[in-house]
């Protein structure tokens, strides 16, 4: 399979609502594997998306979303550390539950427009994802795994950025439809 294009992944990159729920419909078992959750310095893209100053730390949660054991999405959520004591404090106890449990069950949470983005093949985010993917699966991620979607959720004025990076093979499935 060649490089997954924005066109081939369009249905996934633009699908509204919960990605976790859509993925869960593809198989018998959906799971969230937490790869890392902790405090780290702000990245430029996150700082810009969150509208934050140059200083401060962000709380990051990086996970693999798996269907029937197969990893299909690497996701990274980030928020300013101060928001963890306020509107997003429930994130601390989320564990291996999907972030969607917080994002779609509270009508006060608003989501920005989805923004598809192609990662740089050798950029920081791609390298970090590849290291985590290898450690979690024992295999390198697909070289064509370059397309993500990004959005910002707001609760009580506090932003939370979510980036979801797709395995190219997910393009074979329609979001929310069980494969035949």
Task: Lay out the secondary structure.
Elements lengths: L9 H4 L5 H6 L5 E12 L2 H7 L6 E11 L2 E11 L19 H4 L6 E2 L3 E4 L5 H14 L9 E9 L2 E9 L14
Antiparallel strand pairs: 1-2, 2-3, 3-7, 4-6, 5-6, 6-7
Function: Removes the pyruvyl group from chorismate, with concomitant aromatization of the ring, to provide 4-hydroxybenzoate (4HB) for the ubiquinone pathway.
Pathway: Cofactor biosynthesis; ubiquinone biosynthesis
Keywords: Cytoplasm, Lyase, Pyruvate, Ubiquinone biosynthesis
Describe the structure.
There is one protein chain. With 180 residues, the protein is α+β, with helices and mostly antiparallel strands. 19% of the residues lie in helices and 32% in strands. Strands 1, 2, 3, 4, 5, 6 and 7 form a 7-stranded antiparallel β-sheet that branches. β6 and β7 form a beta hairpin. It is globular.
């Amino acid at each position: 399979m060649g490089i997954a294009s924005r066109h081939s992944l369009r249905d996934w990159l633009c699908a509204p609502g919960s990605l976790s729920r859509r993925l869960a419909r593809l198989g018998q078992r959906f799971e969230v594997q937490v790869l890392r959750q902790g405090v780290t310095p702000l990245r430029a893209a996150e700082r810009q998306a969150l509208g934050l100053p140059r200083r401060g730390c962000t709380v990051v949660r990086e996970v693999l979303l798996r269907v029937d054991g197969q990893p299909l999405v690497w996701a990274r959520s980030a928020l300013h550390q101060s928001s963890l004591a306020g509107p997003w404090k429930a994130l601390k106890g989320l564990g291996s539950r999907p972030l969607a449990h917080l994002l779609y069950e509270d009508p006060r949470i608003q989501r920005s427009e989805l923004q598809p983005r192609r990662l740089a093949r050798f950029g920081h985010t791609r390298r970090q994802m590849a290291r985590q993917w290898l450690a979690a699966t024992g295999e390198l991620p697909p070289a064509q795994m370059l397309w993500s979607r990004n959005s910002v959720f707001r609760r009580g004025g506090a932003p939370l950025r979510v980036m979801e990076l797709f395995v190219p093979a997910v393009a074979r499935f329609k979001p929310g439809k069980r494969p035949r």
